[in-house]
Amino acid sequence: MIKRNLDVVWNYEEDSEIGPERWHLLCDRFKPGGEYPLQSPIHLQKNASLILPEKEQLTIHYQKQKFTEKEFKNTIHFVPFDQLSHCVYQGEKYFLTDIHFHMPSEHILDDYQAPLEFHLVHTSKKQVNLVLGVLFQTARLTNQICHDHGDEIWDFDHHIQWFNPDIFLPVQQSYFHYVGSLTTPPTIGPIQWFVFDEIGQMNQNFIDLFKNELLLKNNRPIQALNGRKIYYHQAE
Fold first, then answer.
1. Which of 28, 50, 55, 134 is 20 to 30 Å apart from 6, CA to CA?
2. Mean pLDDT for the stretch of residues 95-114
């Protein structure tokens, strides 16, 4: 199955002429991704990570807000109507602009690839991106998506949702941090990545709502480290 990024056709098939290894050759807009050396996703390992300095740590400020959901770039996206939820990194605010997911996970944590990974994409006023990655196992859960806050509103008939995006965050907020790229064309960087190491539980019933609109596999292969440093923050 082939999807479109604007007018350029690409897919996730590794042996394809339009697959991940050839994305940067498909058009001029994708070409910079092939020239940027710090690509994502990567294999993250605690025993090969440095301690993240306090000044580099992230603070998250989320609140319940209105989203719409739509399908593009090979996945389902939840897009907020307003710039309310945000992160602060190095004194800069990054506002939540998109939530989407990949199956299986794009990042690998200590040799483990999870069935699912959510990306919470943030953008600063300078148009710089910061992404939170959260990995999940899937199970049939009762009356909840991942964390049961009890006041979310999911209206898939009208594509309008009200929820606090912290439902996608793990309880134990320890994370890896590294500099990488986007994981879909044009795969440009630098992108500040924060990937939580707690594997969450996602309701398979929630994912099944989108199964007719998704590819069976929409994860980019693991990329080379190319000498970059990986940091780890252990939550207290």
1. 134
2. 96
User: What phi and psi, each to the nearest 5 degrees, are found at residue 122?
Assistant: -125, 150
The yes/no answer on whether domain 3-233 falls in CATH 3.40.50.620 is: no
In the numeric block, which tokens belong to residue 165? 């995006």
Residue 140 and residue 203 in contact, taking contact as beta carbons nearer than 8 Å: yes
Predicted pLDDT of residue 215 = 62
Residue 208's H or E segment, with its range, is helix 204-208
Q: For the chain, what are the domain ranges?
A: 3-233
123, 95 contact by CB (below 8 A): yes
- Cα 42 from Cα 108, distance rounded (Å): 7
> By the 8 A CB rule, do 27 and 18 touch?
no
Give the SS3 label for residue 178.
Answer: strand
User: In this predicted model, what pLDDT tens digit does every residue of 120-153 receive, in sequence order?
Assistant: 999 999 999 999 999 999 988 776 777 665 667 7
* pLDDT of residue 214 exceeding 70: no
